Amino acid sequence: MFVWLEGTPVALWVSLSLWAYPLLLSVHIVGLAVVVGIFSIRDMRLLGLFRGLNPAAFLSLSKLAWVGFIINAISGLLLFTSQAVTFVGNVPFLLKISCIIAGMILAGIIQTRLRGELSSAGSNTVISRPTKMIAAVSLSLWTAAIITGRLIAYL
Amino acid sequence: MFQALASIALDSPLNQWIAATYWLWPVLEISHFIGLSLLLGGLLIIDLRLTGHFKSFSLEATHQLIPLVLIGFAINLLTGILFFYGDPASYSVNIGFQIKMVLVLLAGLNAMFYYWKLHPLIPIWEVNGETSLLARAVAYASLTLWFSVLLCGRLIAFLGTGYL
After folding, report:
1. What is the mean pLDDT of residues B106-134?
2. Residue B130: left if φ>0, alpha if ψ -120 to 50, beta else—which one?
């Protein structure tokens, strides 16, 4: 299946065009900055940093992070097609994808919990201990996604 | 100017150490990526708030992220200098790197202008949550410059005479 994928016109365009690969990588790093930037600051806020930032604003800000995620899912998929066989056997790549999937699931869980905690807390917002724990795991996952993503080229 | 810096770096002990330490380059790259996430993430929130989005953040509170932005910048300045020291001949003649450095300089000047001329006006803007037209222009310039820095940085490996 991955051999077939590498032979599709899209995959050939990505691997043979002079501009496609660098262009997709450039788009991919913009998405990375948006996704990891927003989610890591959200996690730090939930863990008690930047207390002036209203946690409720992250509910709408996460939509922007989702835009970044969709940009990177598309650019990432296109990059993947060009060397599909190599990537599926690359351990850092598989770890990276696992971290991202887990990070996005936690983003959904955090969103739901935060909405619930904010509506019940009123003006005095206290982030619950479980939510803080999830935020800590999420922050670690996004850091791990960057580390493993970079290591794809080396291992 | 970049060639002059390159001639200082070339064959220096630091240059030789970076070139000989096989694990260092990926570690620097990982740090550079984490730094850019902090830098861009913080600026994204500060600048989007200045342009009038996400008004449930108070203007003043978004500025609590400035230390985070500066930490991200410091990480990337340090790792960036080490990249340059590790391969000065490639970086100094690379058009992507040269444009990126000019853009970082412009972004820095833009930030200084904001901090000295506009930031003191926050208590006035905070009254009704609206900023000025100039503040919005400076915030959009900041986002445009930094995301261009990101693009140029990513393209370094594919441009100029560099072989990175």
Report:
1. 92
2. beta
A residues 48-77 near B, CB within 8 Å? Answer: 50-54, 56-57, 60-61, 64
- Please indicate whether, in this complex, the C-beta atoms of A61 and B150 are within 8 angstroms of each other: no
CB neighbours of residue A86 within 10 Å: 13
For tokens 């051999």, what's the residue? A3
Q: Which residues have C-beta within 8 Å of that of residue B55, sequence separation ≥ 6?
A: B49, B129
Q: What angle do CA A107, A96, A92 make, to 5 degrees?
A: 165
Q: Which of A40, A69, A115 to mutate to test the interface with B (most CBs of B within 10 A)?
A: A40
pLDDT digit string (tens) for A24-34?
999 999 999 99
- Residue B69, chain A, CB below 8 Å: the answer is no
Given A36, A54, A60, which is nearest B37 (Cβ)?
Answer: A36
User: Is the CB of B151 inside 8 Å of chain A's CB atoms?
Assistant: yes
Inspect the interface and report whether the beta carbons of A50 and B64 lie closer than 8 Å. yes
CA distance, residue A19 to nearest chain B CA (Å) = 9
pLDDT, tens digit, for every residue of A46-95?
Answer: 999 999 999 999 999 999 999 999 999 999 999 999 999 999 999 999 99
Q: What's the mean pLDDT in B115-132?
A: 89
Tokens of A72: 């990177």
Please give the ipTM for the structure prediction.
0.94
pLDDT tens readout for residues B72-99: 999 999 999 999 999 999 999 999 999 9
Average pLDDT value for residue range A15-40? 95
Find the length of chain A. 155
